[in-house]
Amino acid sequence: MIALAFDLNVLTRDLSLYLENQVKVGLFGSGVGLSLVLGFSAAYACYYLISVAKKPQLIAGGKKFCQFLREQCPVVSETYYPTFWCWESRVQTLLRPFVTAKPWVSYRNELIRAADGGQISLDWFDNDGSATHPDPTSRPTVLLLPGLTGTSRESYILHMVQQSRELGYRCVVFNNRGVSGERLLTPRTYCAANTEDLETVIEHIQNTCPAAPLMAAGVSMGGMMLANYLGRKGRETCLRGVVVFSAGWDVFECTASLEKPLDRFLFNSYLTSCLQASVDRHRPVLEKLFDIDHVMKAKTVREFDERFTSIMFGYPTNEDYYRDASPIHRLKSVQVPMLCLNAADDVFSPNHAFPVETVKQNPNVALLITDHGGHIGFLEGVWPRQSTYMDRVFRQFAKAVIEQGNRLRDL
């Protein structure tokens, strides 16, 4: 890498001398302007290649799982080249929904009933045109869990559906209660700690497609819910494998990070307003048990949780809810192969709270950490419209679990 930087510097010097003597660009009557541009470009290229583009760190609790990932998912060993003009964490996070394409997906919606009388909205992509798995009874199924206020129409979900379609798999998107347009039948929504609805959904999918292998992928809060579910269930699950993206491992640290001035302005206030809009949309049902006007005055996610979420799920304090919602406390009980992708610069999930030591003690869990990528960003390429690093991790891991999953037994 040092040699590369030296070569670029020599090239820049030679070009500058040539341009100053031969090219007139109108800046002070010489080629100084273009020379400065070339010099800056070369310096930036050196900085990018030395400090930004790096191989991710793979941490695994067992050699067998680690070796499996390196063989079947080569992306875990490849250098991640973030989009050179927007590699900074907040920029990646903010731009992802706008610069990535939204593949067209036609869903089949299904509403199922929960034990408390509520309803859960599932969006199915059946992939009936699958060439590799034409038999619908045995077609592999991927369960997708969006983030905090996300639905099946989020760009990152649509990209995973597209990847699954190309692999010949079926997808089911689990929309949390009340977020995708369906009516709220009972005064209850969702949270990262409560996995009852997820258990209902997994059981329903298993009963609907009993001969089809099933795996799951969760993003942000969806990943937290999946990790908490696996921690509770141990081996008592039909999931063959799980991949988690940008999960918040310690909710106390996540909220503290989002309450820093700049991040509060850029992200916290917006998330709070989205949560409040969902509550206000179902006010007729929720106001029977909650002071909705008080909830609508919350300024941060923490205040929203104190006034609404922790109360809804019966926690004595918000601290009790945050402790129960933090997946870091349940990772040691996970008994299903789980790959977790996080960016070290994610302001939603600060890297000092990553469960590195816990992962090292569980042979079923692997943690993949990139230096850059932000929160659900992972943009790469000059113009990152069609695919991201996160999409490649999903595709390779899903294929490995479905087609080579037998090698992961008895980790």
From TrEMBL:
It comes from the Eukaryota. One of its GO terms (molecular function) is acetylesterase activity. It is a single-pass type II membrane protein. GO terms for cellular component: membrane. The active site is at S220 (charge relay system), D346 (charge relay system), H375 (charge relay system). It holds the Pfam family Abhydrolase_1. One of its GO terms (biological process) is phosphatidylcholine metabolic process. It is an enzyme of class 3 (hydrolase). It is found in: Membrane. Keywords: Hydrolase, Lipid metabolism, Membrane, Phospholipid metabolism, Serine esterase, Signal-anchor, Transmembrane, Transmembrane helix. PROSITE patterns: UPF0017. It catalyses: 1-octadecanoyl-2-pentanoyl-sn-glycero-3-phosphocholine + H2O = pentanoate + 1-octadecanoyl-sn-glycero-3-phosphocholine + H(+); 1,2-ditetradecanoyl-sn-glycero-3-phosphocholine + H2O = 2-tetradecanoyl-sn-glycero-3-phosphocholine + tetradecanoate + H(+); 1-octadecanoyl-2-hexanoyl-sn-glycero-3-phosphocholine + H2O = hexanoate + 1-octadecanoyl-sn-glycero-3-phosphocholine + H(+); 1-tetradecanoyl-2-(5Z,8Z,11Z,14Z-eicosatetraenoyl)-sn-glycero-3-phosphocholine + H2O = 2-(5Z,8Z,11Z,14Z)-eicosatetraenoyl-sn-glycero-3-phosphocholine + tetradecanoate + H(+). Residues 140-381 form the AB hydrolase-1 domain. InterPro entries: AB_hydrolase_1, AB_hydrolase_4_CS, AB_hydrolase_4_sf, AB_hydrolase_fold, ABHD4. Its EC number is 3.1.1.32, 3.1.1.4. PANTHER family: ABHYDROLASE DOMAIN-CONTAINING PROTEIN, PHOSPHOLIPASE ABHD3. Phospholipase that may play a role in phospholipids remodeling. May selectively cleave myristate (C14)-containing phosphatidylcholines through its predominant phospholipase 1 activity, cleaving preferentially acyl groups in sn1 position. In parallel, may have a minor phospholipase 2 activity acting on acyl groups in position sn2. In addition to (C14)-containing phosphatidylcholines, may also act on other medium-chain-containing and oxidatively truncated phospholipids. Belongs to the AB hydrolase superfamily. AB hydrolase 4 family. This is Phospholipase ABHD3. It comes from Megalops atlanticus.
